[in-house]
Amino acid sequence: MPGPTPITAPFRLNFQYRIDTLDHRCQFYLRTSPSADSTGYDTVPRAGFAAVGVSAAVDGFFTTIAPLYKSTDTTFLGALLEELVSGAWVYRAYHATAVTPTGSAVYQKAMQLCESGRDTNNKPMPVYLYEQHVGDPSKDTAFGALGANYAALVEALFNPGGTAVSANPVAWRVSRGNVYSQRWLAQVTDSNEKLRRRRGIK
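Request: output the structure for the sequence above.
Response:
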């Protein structure tokens, strides 16, 4: 059985957030070009979208997920931009976001959300978020049946409704193999065993 796709994407963004003393991250790969943005880089978008500063891409994603978290237990920290150089990730910039959570529901310990999808080579291209208010374990495959906040997240990541904008990850996010996303498959919520151990509930 073949192993994971080798990483050929040239850059990665690690979105960092803290929930009740535990640090989490959401990692995206991307292509960039030098610019006058505060980070020094713009995104390199797929056809149909425009380049934006990496700082705008960071703030845009945090704004998308803001309704999924509550400010009393969650802090959005920012995102670390790194470049793959000779097989090692090298620091290039950090953007500390001013975006704050806007949700009203408290976090759920040790739960995770997976937005499952495929890239244009038909290989898995999931996105994971942790410990937001997700309800009971579930799997949803109908975009139209998602609640507004989760539909907005899926739209930002995969654009099934055709309304995504250039700051959204679907415009600039690439896979390990350096190709853009192709389609959304499902939203899956469940417990995370590693987080259960870290939270001391296992």
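The mean pLDDT is 96.
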